[in-house]
Amino acid sequence: MTEQWFVQLVAGWIGLGLVAFVALQFVDAPYGKQYGARTARAWGPGVPNRLGWFVMEAVVLVSFFGTFATMNAAWSSPTLLFAALLTAHYVNRALIYPWRTRTRGKRMPLSVVLMSVVFNTMNGFLLGWEFALYADRGLSWFADPRFVLGALLFVGGMALNLHSDNLLIGLRKGGDTGYHVPRGGGFRWVSSPNLLGEIVEWAGFALLTWTWSGLAFFVWTCANLVPRARANHRWYRERFADYPPERRALVPGIW
Ligand SMILES: NC(=O)c1ccc[n+]([C@@H]2O[C@H](COP(=O)([O-])OP(=O)(O)OC[C@H]3O[C@@H](n4cnc5c(N)ncnc54)[C@H](OP(=O)(O)O)[C@@H]3O)[C@@H](O)[C@H]2O)c1
């Protein structure tokens, strides 16, 4: 049984995620396409883009494994798998993805990196704590419908995320750091299939782990990525006169 104080902490954290969601209706997170001379002035000093991605994403692994290790908990089969899925995602996001992007010379605000470090440290802590103390359900969990559906969503979402990020990275040749209209894969239907894949992935993770911290991670992912998908869609439509009119922002055929 999860302790009351932990559930209250996660509930407060989810509440903060909802506040972030409301705030992001009024301001575009200033990195990537949304980072220009004006935003650079408003958000303070910048750091190299790839270094920023590495630092802000790597802290999840440090925070998660640091917390789990200090709890001195036993690795059961389900928790081992939960940790392996989290690790697979963050090994790519922190150690591989930044160095594959064609963003040499680009920067992002240090303030954004620091805010992400706070979010990711908290996220890793909550997941590590709950996995260590409350997520051990024994082998029968692998046959539970919540695990099976969650695992399908996780794998499908991750595949869409990776494939879409690959298509975006492949748009730039040589030293090009400009923007082009992405085509193929999930881009046939939406402007940000990579973000859609990420959202589906963490929905699956919340389901397959059936944890409060997994739910909080999913809420925060939506809070960050739904407004970003809207900003991306608007950005493409303003920049490219030939942008496919049937393409939606995030949800195929709907929005
Ligand atoms: N779980 C979360 O809360 C969370 C939060 C943020 C991001 N993420 C994940 O992190 C990854 C990156 O996120 P993001 O928001 O930076 O994605 P993004 O804006 O789609 O950019 C992804 C990469 O593709 C490049 N790119 C984007 N559009 C392009 C175009 N039209 N032409 C050429 N290159 C283009 C970007 O370069 P530039 O940097 O030069 O724009 C960047 O290197 C995604 O997989 C996302 O799901 C997760």
Mean pLDDT: 95
Major β-sheet annotation: 2 strands, antiparallel
Small molecules bound: NADP nicotinamide-adenine-dinucleotide phosphate
Sequence of strands across the biggest β-sheet: 1-2
Please provide the count of β strands: 2
Poorly predicted ranges: none
What fraction of the residues are assigned to beta strands by DSSP? under 5%
Order of helices and strands: HHEHHEHHHH
Shape type? globular
Derived from helix and strand composition plus strand pairing, the structural class reads mainly alpha
**Total helical elements:** 8
- Terminal CA distance: 39 Å
Helix content: 55-70%
Number of domains: 1
| Rg calculated over all Cα atoms | 19 Å
Describe what is shown at a glance.
With 255 residues, the chain is an all-alpha fold.
Give a verbal description of the structure.
The chain has 255 residues and is mostly helical. The chain has one domain. It has helices spanning 4-23, 37-43, 49-70, 77-100, 110-134, 145-170, 193-209, 212-239; strands at residues 46-48, 107-109. Strands 1-2 form a two-stranded antiparallel sheet. The longest helix has 28 residues, at 212-239. The chain is globular. The protein starts with a helix and ends in a 16-residue tail after the last helix. 37% of the residues are buried. The model has no long low-confidence stretch (mean pLDDT 95). The structure holds NADP nicotinamide-adenine-dinucleotide phosphate.
